[in-house]
Amino acid sequence: MVMALLLFVSLVEAMAVNGLNQQVQRNIGASAGGQALDLAFVMDCTGSMGSYIDTARKHIQAIVDEIVTSSNTTVRLALVEYRDHPPQDNTFVTKTYNFTDSVFMMKIWLNAARATGGGDGPEAVAEALFKATKLSWRPEATKITVLISDAPPHGLVPSQDSSFPGSPTDTIQ
Ligand SMILES: *[C@@H]1O[C@H](CO)[C@@H](O)[C@H](O)[C@H]1NC(C)=O
Ligand SMILES: *[C@@H]1O[C@H](CO)[C@@H](O)[C@H](O)[C@H]1NC(C)=O
Fold first, then answer.
1. What is the CATH number of the domain that holds 78?
2. Is 112 within a domain?
3. In angstroms, rounded to a whole number, what is the distance separating the alpha carbons of residues 144 and 146?
4. How far is CA 24 from the centre of its chain?
5. pLDDT of 59-71, one tens digit each?
6. Domain for residue 173, yes or no?
C-alpha cells in the first residue's frame, strides 16, 4: 500500500510536535495494521533557512519520541537536503541520507546541515521531491514526507525565474 502525504510547512514552528503527530496518527489509523512509519524530511538548506534548520534539529527528537510512545510504531527517518541548480548554486543540488532507525544518526545529519547559498528565489524543490521518491521506503510502512521550505520550486512563476523559466527537469538525474 502506498500512502504518501505531503505537508507543506512554510514555518517550521508549524511542524510543532502535536500537529505532525496528529497527522501521523490519522495516517497510521487509516492504514490497516500499519505499525511501521517511514518519515522523510525534505529540507531547503539555502541561506535563509538557518533558523528553521535549528528548529528542526531541536524538535526532531521530540517528534520521534512522541510518535513512538503514542503509536507503538517503528519509525525510520531520512533526510534530503537541497539548494539549487547551477549556476544559482554550485555546492550541491540535493544531498540524500537514506532511511535509518537511529534518531542519533538523524541528529548527526541535521547537525551537519548548513544554510547557505541558493542564488535566486526559487530553489530545487522538484529535484528534492524526486530524490525523496527514490529513498528505501518500506512497502508496508506508512510513508510521510515533510517539506520544510520558504521558497517556491523553479518553473512556477516564469517572470520571477531568471535561470529556469521552465522547470529544470533536464538536470534531474
Ligand atoms: C506494541 O507492538 C508490539 C508488537 O506489535 C506488541 O507486542 C505490543 O503489545 C504493543 N504495545 C502496545 C502498548 O500497544
Ligand atoms: C536508498 O537505498 C535504497 C536501497 O538500498 C537504494 O535502492 C536507493 O537508491 C537509495 N536511495 C538514495 C536516494 O540514496
1. 3.40.50.410
2. yes
3. 7
4. 15
5. 877 777 777 776 6
6. no
